[in-house]
Amino acid sequence: MRLILASASPRRSALLRAAGIAFEQRPARVNESLLPAEAARDYVLRLAEAKARAAWRQGELALGADTTVAVDGGILGKPADADDAKRMLRLLSGRAHLVLTGVALFDGGGAKRAVEETRVFFRPLSSAEIEEYAASGESADKAGAYGIQGGASKFVERIEGCYFNVVGLPVSKVYGMLR
Fold first, then answer.
1. Domains of the chain, each with CATH number or no CATH
2. Which of 55, 62, 137, 151 lies deepest, with the highest CB count within 10 Å?
3. For this structure, is 66 an active site residue?
4. Where does the pLDDT of residue 5 fall: very low under 50, low under 70, confident under 90, or very high at 90 and above?
């Protein structure tokens, strides 16, 4: 059965390729609005499944994924602009937060779903560091306004859990679900 990645993310496709997992890419467009009182775990699972279902066609297995950052009971998605990115980075500065990725495999019947959770610890960031990183543009399409694999790597003191989850796809979990 052919695997379809229901995402336009270059990071997700690069991770699958690096792991030797064959797939075709077919981005799915779904409404990513947060539902009232929706928890981060429920949010990423719902979106991952919606993406997988939207990309699926007969005879295929569709993989949907969605990543978000949770801190103080709130959800940090992709920043709206540079000011929003700065707000998020100030919120993450000097503390821990959770990165959650929901993954779903859909084959036309039911969906297999799972969530990977990684705790990320940021060192305290200066105003200049926040300004410089937000101005770099790197934060524009990333949950929580940062990419651990890029310039923000210097902000991360340590992680507890899967590094690839923070990049955008918990490869080992996906591989286990595919087996």
1. 2-178 (3.90.950.10)
2. 62
3. yes
4. very high
